[in-house]
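WARN  no MSA supplied for this record, continuing single-sequence
INFO  ligand: FE2/S2 (inorganic) cluster
INFO  echoing inputs
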Amino acid sequence: MTERVSRLINGLAQTRRLILEEYQELIDSRNPETAQALAERAVAERKNIYGNAVYVRGLIEISNICKNDCLYCGIRRGNPHCDRYRLTPKQIMECVEEGYGLGFRTFVLQGGEDPHFTDEVLCGLVHDIKCRHPDCAVTLSMGERSRDSYQRLREAGADRYLLRHETADRAHYGRLHPPEMSFDDRMRCLQELRELGYQVGCGFMVGSPYQTSATLAKDLKFVEEFKPDMCGIGPFVPHKDTPFRDCPAGTVELTCFLLSIIRLIYPPVLLPATTALGTIHPEGRELGILAGANVVMPNLSPVATRKKYELYDNKICTGEESAQCKDCLSARMRSVGYEIVTDRGDVKK
Ligand code: 5AD
Ligand code: FES
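INFO  complex generated
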C-alpha cells in the first residue's frame, strides 16, 4: 500500500472524515490490501460498541404495489409482468406473531408506495403491533410521504424509518428515477424523519448504473454529515423487466469495501448485510459482517408472496419458512464467529 493511501486510512480512522477527493481516491486505489486494512479497523470499531452481536430484524414485505417507476426496481409501476399483491392486516399480524414467537423484537414493514396504505391504515397497523408487543420496535420502509404523515405514524408508535437516499448526486439521482421524482423531495423526507424523532436509515445501491467513484464519494460525504442511525447498502442487481436489465450487478468486493468505510465514518451505525449481497454471492452476507456490518434481516413474509416481492432477479430466501430463514442466518453468523441477538437492537450512540 502506498504511504499516501495508508495516511488516508489512518486519517479516516482518527478524524472520521475525508474530503470528497480523498474518498474518491480511496475508492479508486482500492486493492485487497487496502480492503483488508479497512476491514480490520472497521471490525475493531464495531467490536468496541457491539461485541460479536449481530442484530436481527424481521422483514415483512407488505405490498408490491407501487406508484413509482424507479428505473432499477422490479416492482416499478411500469412493469406489467409483476404479479401484484397486498397483505391484509390479518396476514401482517400473523407474520408479526410468528416472528415474535421466533424471538424477533424488531419488525420492518416494507412495501412499495401503495396508495392503499393511507395514514389511517398504516397507523392502525403500527398501533396494533405496539399494543400487542410494547417490547418491540416497529420500523417502516414505505417510501416518501408527507411530513404530516410521518408525524402521525410516529405518534402511532413507529420507532424507525428506512428510506434509502439511493445516491447523493443530483444528476445521478435523475438518471435512476423518472422525471416526476426529485432528489430534493428525498432529502427533505430524510430531514423531516429525523426532526420527528425517528431513528433514520438512509442508503444506496453499489454498482447502480451511471455510478462512479465521484458519486460514491458524495454518498460517503452524505453519510458523514447526516450520521444516519442505519445505513442500508447492497449491490445493484438487474431485474429482467426493467430498463436496466442488461446492466452489470454491483460487486461483493466494492460493497464490502464501502461497508468498512461507513463503519469507520460513523462507528455506531447499524449496517445490514443485505439480502442483495447474499444474492450475488453464496456467502455475501457473511462477507458483509466480516467487513463491518452488524445487522441481518431474515424474511418473515408469507412464503406465498415472497417470490412476488422481486426488486431484482434471483432474490434469495423466497422459498424458506420464517423459522428456516432465521435458523439459516443464525448458523451463517455463527460460522464466522458472530451471534444473532433478538433484543430491539437500538443504535448505541
Ligand atoms: N437491485 C438492488 N437493490 C434494489 N433496490 C431496488 N431495486 C433494486 C435492484 N434492482 C433497493 C433500493 C430500495 C430498496 C428497498 O431496494 O435501494 O431503496
Ligand atoms: Fe433466508 Fe438463509 S437466510 S433462507
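Residues 3-341 form a domain with the TIM Barrel fold (CATH 3.20.20.70).
INFO  checksum written, moving to next record
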